[in-house]
Structure formats: C-alpha cells, structure tokens
Amino acid sequence: MKLVGSHPSPYVRRLRLWLEGHQYDFLPLDIYSEAGRAELETYTPAMKVPMLVDNEHSVYDSRIIHRYLNEKLKKESLSWEDENLMTLIDSMQESFIILLMSKRSGIDTSDDRLILNLQKERIARTMPVLEQATKDGDFSEWRYPAICLFALLDWILFRELFTLDEYPALAAFYTAQLDKNLVQETDPRATH
C-alpha cells in the first residue's frame, strides 16, 4: 500500500495517525510546487491528497480511503453518530481551508464577501457543537473520529487560523494528544 499526500495536510495526517502499527509506504509531495503537482497528476486527476494505491485499487478522498482500509483491516466500526461528527469536522476543515486559500490568494478574509461569510458562519455554528460533543465524551477514545478532530485542531492552530481560548474541552482534548509518539512524528511543524 502507498499513501500519497503531503506533510501539512490534515486529511493525510488523520490517515497516518489511524494507520499506526500497519505497514504502508508514505509518499510526501509538495503539492504546490511544479514537480509535486506533476507527480500528483500521475496518481489522481482530482489533484488532491490523500490518495491510496493498493495493488490494482486507486482510492481517493480521506473518508473513502478510511472506509476502504477499515473494511480491509477490520479496525473499528463507526456509528451514525460518529459519521455525523466526522461530517461536522470535515465541514469545518473545508471552511478553514477556504479561508486559508483565500488569504493566500490575496483576498482580505475580513471582507464582507458571501464565500467568506458562509465559512465564518459554519465555523461559528459548528465549533460549539464539537465543544459539547467533546464534553459529552464523544471523542474520549482514540478512534478515527477523535483522530480527525485532533488533525483539524492541530492544523488550524499550525496555520494560525483560530484559537481554542473559548473552547476549554476542545483545548484539553487537543493538549491530551500531544504526547503521542505518532502525533509528534507527523507534526507538520517539524517538516516545514
């Protein structure tokens, strides 16, 4: 198996954390460099990471890769509540990525623009739900939903897009994961 991705991608990192103890090759690419984009194109027409190559199978998107590998490895079973929480996490991740890409594209993210306002609204409405779910113990086990939450939180802090000052349960959850060996080994700050 080969996982194609980038060190800073939270979608890639969640899979790397979840695959702890399993054998696979990791191909890190700089997906914004000319050479990295050229190599990525050989793996996926969508030009997005992560993607997985497993024998004759090419699997795109972190959620589908997780589903594919979970079937193959028989690691865990996810409830509909887990799936819903992961959808909220993914929605937040997408909003933060849109805000970061806007900023990198020279757009003032404090502007009153529909696309920016929609992302900020999603974040404002979803973060308290994730805070409550954390208080309720929904992320108390280091399973894929908790790993996805950690990858989101660490990425937004790494990119300096948000603080957890108003979310003590999320902050405590985040801090509690930092001593894990693989969390430290996959830290994007160490590679960039």
What does this structure look like?
- It is a single chain.
- The protein is of the alpha+beta class and 192 residues long.
- The chain is 55% helix and 8% strand.
- It is built from eight helices and four strands, in the order E-H-E-H-E-E-H-H-H-H-H-H.
- It has helices spanning 10-18, 34-41, 62-73, 80-104, 114-135, 144-158, 168-177, 181-185; strands at 2-5, 25-28, 51-54, 57-60.
- It has a four-stranded mixed β-sheet, covered by helices on one side.
- Strand 3 and strand 4 (57-60) form a beta hairpin.
- Helix 4 packs antiparallel against helix 5 (114-135) and helix 4 packs parallel to helix 6 (144-158).
- The longest helix is centred in the middle third of the chain and has 25 residues, at 80-104.
- It is globular.
- The mean pLDDT is 96.
Task: Write a concise keyword list for the protein shown above.
single chain, 192 residues, alpha+beta, 4-stranded mixed beta sheet, 8 helices
SSE layout and pairing:
Layout: E1 2-5, H1 10-18, E2 25-28, H2 34-41, E3 51-54, E4 57-60, H3 62-73, H4 80-104, H5 114-135, H6 144-158, H7 168-177, H8 181-185
Parallel strand pairs: 1-2
Antiparallel strand pairs: 1-3, 3-4
Helix pairs in contact: 1-6, 4-5, 4-6, 5-7
